[in-house]
Amino acid sequence: MGKTFDRIDGRLREFIDRQPVFFAATAPLSGDGHVNLSPKGRSGSLRVLDERTVAYLDFGGSGAETIAHLRENGRITLMWCAFDGPPSIVRVHGRGEPVFRDDPRWADLIALFPDGGAPAIRAVVVVTATRISDTCGFAVPFMDYREERTLHAEYFGRKTDEEFAAYCAGKPHVPTSLDGLAALPVPLPPRSA
Known about the structure:
Strand 4 and strand 5 form a beta hairpin. By secondary structure, the protein is an alpha+beta fold. It has helices spanning 10-18, 65-72, 106-110, 151-157, 161-170; strands spanning 3-5, 22-26, 36-40, 46-50, 53-59, 75-81, 89-100, 121-135.
């Protein structure tokens, strides 16, 4: 039976910190718009900031649906599930905001991540929880974690900041979403820190 929580307590935080992957779900306000579900999981790219706030690094490499939906309406759900150990699923429903490279908060936020100097970071997504819950996860399969993939860091590590900005500007669904919503600001602002 699932439970709801007032805060991300120590037990929930430990569970979140142990999971190598999580998922972010967003949707536009339009009833015929595209719902988006994105896997996330580069090591060091997620931080529980306090008992009601989570932040993660948004990397380039695909579209920017999550950013577009957050800019339009702020709704987001993050989900972690245990692929080993006791079965559990944790969800944080909340309000999300992308903090871009030219935002005055950027330097303080990016400093919280050990991977904050990594290539291809477009934004820090800050999520304030409105509902925190867990469920059993009895049907989630056991899966073994082997290792991090390094392809993303290697590919974007070969690009200068200017080349990465050009890459973002050249992708059709980075400046705007599949539904035509404003997504990543282009030209991509340089890093302020």
